Amino acid sequence: xxxxxxxxxxxxxxxxxxxxxxxxxxxxxxxxxxxxxxxxxxxxxxxxxxxxxxxxxxxxxxxxxxxxxxxxxxxxxxxxxxxxxxxxxxxxxxxxxxxxxxxxxxxxxxxxxxxxxxxxxxxxxxxxxxxxxxxx
Length: 136
Hints:
alpha+beta
């Protein structure tokens, strides 16, 4: 039975589910940052998914990436499945901008997260709705 890792639950806000994944917004307003978490029990790596699940994950990741880049007009889309801190398979999607606080390096460990205010979170969720509809 699938259970979301406690750290992902603590650091993110649910945006709903796609056919394969939980869709989570990272609670860091510095970057548009969404995480896809396949709802498959005890999976740590993409290669552990069944071939159809792998294909679906790439479809969902690509649709999310395109939607986020169209919406935010970033300079680069960073997609990563590191799993060094959280072993559960999850795929980060971070819109990057030249001149952002970590550019051109990775976002991890560069600065403390800047949590969304209640109002900013509601605005971000509303803004993301057209992108999320393409993942259903």
